[in-house]
Amino acid sequence: MTQMNTRVLLARRPAERMVADDFAVDTQPLGSLEEGQFLIKNSYLSMDAGFRQWMNEGSGDNYLSSMPLGEPVQSIIMGTIIESRHAGYPVGSTVMGRTAWEEYSIDDGTDFMAILEPEAGIEPYEYLASLGPSGMTAYFGLMNIGQPKSGDLFLINAAAGGIGSLAGQMAKAEGCTTVGIAGGPAKCAWLRDTLGYDHVIDYKSGESLDDQLTAIAPEGVDIVFDNVGGAMLGTMLGHLAENSRIVLCGAVSQYDRVNGHEAVANMWELITKRARAEGFMFSDHVDRYPEAIAYISAMLKAGTLVSPINMSEGIESAGQAFVDMLDGKSSGKCLVKL
Ligand SMILES: NC(=O)c1ccc[n+]([C@@H]2O[C@H](COP(=O)([O-])OP(=O)(O)OC[C@H]3O[C@@H](n4cnc5c(N)ncnc54)[C@H](OP(=O)(O)O)[C@@H]3O)[C@@H](O)[C@H]2O)c1
Fold it and tell me: What is d(CA 167, CA 161) in angstroms, rounded to the nearest whole number?
């Protein structure tokens, strides 16, 4: 019997605000393997806000190409190899890599595709969350660029998201006082009560972000971890302490803009505050993943890291889960279980 494969396609270019109808579900017969390929039965899809950027027309850059219309949406996945014509990827291996929103993926290992050795006692999906790209991004952004020291004031936006929820807890573990910015009172209460943020700012409250930052950080902020970009980044740059570090991780407020990102205010502050802003991609640090995994799994085992997961079920739920994540309707790392 022919094996069928249900996939979620990018059906049209999103207008400014993405909706679930920008995606379409289709089912096709699965092709057969060529020499050098292997077949993955996907068990989890990772919902990553950054992929929104590459859904726009002409958005290809030095990191990824613009996603083609009518093709499965590109995604980080985790799964098990069930058939193989590639000696380096044997049947039974658990893998994490970049394929697409689909039940089965055929791959040749030439792009990002790692064989995992999940540790007993750790939920396998953690390798897509705290021990996967989100954890690696939080860890390398914080440690390499943020360079936390005990007593530093650490400020992060999208603080309740996949990366934000982990980075804030790691900064706290490094001795920082943490300030999390998120949308809505329920999320902010959760940040304080469950994730242990010292201060929270609800950027949707109607109160000025500038005034709230002045009240919480009158001496300025030592580390800014920016996931949002645009106007919010500009406001945060107006509150730097001397010798501060700005981790440029993402710009989720800008991905809907089809005509390019808006200018960022207060760049002058970097000069007078002797501050350093630096961008990075988590995949720059593949050689140091074991260091990050050791750090994060020690926290997980000691019970000092909450790894919040927002789990959706079924391939058909991927589009709505992605839209809900961008709209801030979910908290923690968003995954789809197949
Ligand atoms: N550099 C790297 O290697 C790397 C790797 C992965 C991801 N990233 C970046 O990291 C960031 C977070 O990614 P994620 O996958 O973990 O997503 P996420 O934080 O789980 O989800 C995105 C969150 O951003 C907030 N948000 C959306 N629009 C906003 C706006 N206009 N203003 C302020 N906040 C807004 C929403 O939360 P609220 O309820 O708080 O609004 C939403 O839940 C993204 O910018 C992504 O591109 C970077």
Answer: 10
The DSSP letter of residue 40 is E
Ligand 1 is surrounded, with C-beta below 6 A, by 48-50, 133-134, 137, 157-158, 160-164, 182-183, 187, 227-228, 232, 249-253, 280-282, 325-326, 328, 334
Which ligand 1 atom is nearest residue 279's CA?
1
Residue 310 sits at φ, ψ, to 5 deg, of -110, 105
* Gap between the Cα atoms of 17 and 274, Å rounded: 37
How would you write the pLDDT of the chain (338 residues) with one tens digit per residue? 789 999 999 999 998 899 999 999 999 999 999 999 999 999 999 999 999 999 999 888 888 899 999 999 999 999 999 999 999 999 999 999 999 999 999 999 998 899 998 888 899 999 999 999 999 999 999 999 999 999 999 999 999 999 999 999 999 999 999 999 999 999 999 999 999 999 999 999 999 999 999 999 999 999 999 999 999 999 999 999 999 999 999 999 999 998 889 999 999 999 999 999 999 999 889 899 999 999 999 999 999 999 999 999 999 999 999 999 999 999 999 999 99
Range list of β-strands (E), the chain: 4-10, 23-29, 38-46, 74-84, 94-100, 104-107, 113-116, 153-156, 177-182, 199-202, 221-226, 240-248, 276-279, 309-313, 333-337
User: CATH assignment of 133-283, given 3.40.50.720, 1.10.10.10, 3.40.630.30, 3.30.70.100?
Assistant: 3.40.50.720
Q: Nearest residue CA, atom 30 of ligand 1?
A: 253
Residue 50 tokens read as 């950054």
The ranges assigned to domains in the chain are: 4-129+308-337, 133-283
CA 312 to chain centre: 16
Nearest CA owner, ligand 1 atom 10: 250
The class of domain 4-129+308-337 in CATH terms is: alpha beta
